[in-house]
Specification:
This protein has about 120 residues and is an alpha/beta fold. The chain contains three helices and five strands, in the order βαβαββαβ. It is about 25% helix and about 20% strand. Strand 1 (about 15-20), helix 1 (about 25-30) and strand 2 form a beta-alpha-beta unit.
């Protein structure tokens, strides 16, 4: 994760991965699940509706379904979920330069504290 709360903070840091399926949100939650900071992270997998069942099964298998959820949507036509950190796992390479610039522009909007291309 890019943003992590300090040791005295009890605020949950939220993150959303665009083009989720079996992507970074679940993997990072799994990696941090034993750490105290892992309990302060919440995630959203944002992708087309048909990906939802795959995401939910993967989250359940990795025992992080209590901290992540799936949100159906289309990152080309809809606003990105309102979270602290936006990640784009394995999607930018799929699109032409015009679409890449549009997606990065959405992710770098002032309402997000950070973004990363995972």
């Amino acid at each position: 994760m890019v943003a992590r709360p300090g040791p005295s903070s009890q605020r949950t840091v939220s993150s959303s991965n665009q083009g989720q399926a079996l992507g970074p949100i679940v993997d990072r939650m799994t990696a941090l699940s034993g750490a105290a900071v892992g309990q302060l992270l919440a995630g959203i997998g944002f992708d087309l509706a048909e990906v939802g069942p795959i995401f939910e099964e993967y989250a359940e298998t990795n025992r992080v379904s209590d901290r992540v959820r799936f949100e159906p949507g289309d990152f080309f036509t809809q606003a990105l979920p309102r979270v602290d950190v936006i990640t784009m796992g394995h999607i930018l390479h799929d699109w032409d330069l015009k679409n890449k610039k549009m997606l990065v522009s959405k992710a770098r909007a002032p309402e997000f504290k950070a973004w990363m291309n995972a």
